[in-house]
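Please predict the structure of the following assembly.
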Amino acid sequence: AQSVTQPDIHITVSEGASLELRCNYSYGATPYLFWYVQSPGQGLQLLLKYFSGDTLVQGIKGFEAEFKRSQSSFNLRKPSVHWSDAAEYFCAVYNTDKLIFGTGTRLQVFP
Amino acid sequence: DAGVIQSPRHEVTEMGQEVTLRCKPISGHDYLFWYRQTMMRGLELLIYFNNNVPIDDSGMPEDRFSAKMPNASFSTLKIQPSEPRDSAVYFCASSPPPGKGNTIYFGEGSWLTVV
């Protein structure tokens, strides 16, 4: 069965530092992959998605992610984190009409 | 576009009471999903509909949970009777046919507390 793993439950970074959130997927063919962000008390907002083509995907709020088939990964990156990026981030894979989510990574940003 | 609209946003109810959560999907979206989010289990898919027909309800935890979609613009998730372990955030989401790069859009969630 398709699944995603987010190995980091909690990450803390300083404002202005770079960020990489890890996501590994399990799927035989080319997966459709997504990153969502959830701010406290809010719903899920799509940051970016990959389904074909260029393996480096640009998203909103300055985020990008790179699909690496050899590593079964779809890591989310941002070169300089802002305090407003503090939130929970979810990686997801499309599986037969529905999204399967990872367990999430909570990002804390220190000034 | 108003997005996916859920109501109520917050509900506190007593154990044993019936709870009804409501969802209005984005107009034109054929698919509607109900997810539940808890600290212990993360985001779980409960049930989803295609063109108002339930396709997969294998995630519905037990018979106390039921979901309906009487028309393309409205769905309900009902819990009867409610229990404290049902306390969670319930998300409704909708999309065009998933896959092929289409996005699944989420509502703001219904925050349920059962005391």
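Chain A touches chain B through 21 residues (CB under 8 Å). The CA atoms of residues 32 and 66 of chain A lie 13 Å apart.
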